[in-house]
Design brief:
two-stranded antiparallel ribbon; alpha+beta; elongated; 35% helix; 162 residues
């Protein structure tokens, strides 16, 4: 049996992995990126644990009536990019739009720098909502998702139904 040099230990990233030697060669602060996988797991778990609260918020924003209910989609169907988590929400007995579902989009706090700069997630939401509204008003030929509403960390909400 040949004596082979041990493969360098890899460190997990959100996408792929890196070795210590590769991390040391990067110009950006890799310590921040190396924390993301654990922060993602913790955030997704927190969202799942608060799913009833989110379902109530979505029900409010949609103006659901008696007998109409929201249900979180399966976590295997959750999607995320670099800065947002998108959750499918199924609406049962929705009289206004039968058979439709909505997506709840939540900023990833560890990616928008919320812990270092409190308020970044709210600013992100405000600017994205303003962009949606501007495009809807000024570029009606561009198809964009319908914005039912949004909420900020302090409890303020803007809702299409009110």
């Amino acid at each position: 049996m040949e004596d082979q040099a041990a493969a360098p230990k890899t460190l997990p990233l959100l996408e792929g992995s890196t070795t210590l030697a590769e991390a040391l060669e990067e110009e950006e602060n890799m310590l921040i990126r190396l924390k993301y996988p654990n922060q993602r797991v913790n955030f997704f778990l927190w969202v799942y644990q608060h799913r009833n609260d989110f379902e109530a918020i979505v029900s409010y924003h949609l103006g659901l009536g008696e007998g109409e209910t929201c249900q979180f989609g399966d976590p295997r169907d959750w999607k995320h990019g670099s800065f947002n988590l998108c959750l499918p929400i199924h609406i049962h007995n929705w009289r206004k739009y039968p058979g439709k579902r909505v997506m709840l989009r939540i900023p990833l706090p560890y990616r928008v720098g919320e812990s270092s700069y409190s308020g970044n997630a709210d600013e992100k939401l405000r600017t994205e909502a303003a962009t949606f509204i501007w495009i809807k008003d000024n570029c009606p030929d561009i198809r964009i998702p319908f914005l039912w509403g949004f909420g900020l960390s302090g409890g303020e909400t803007v809702c299409k139904n009110t």
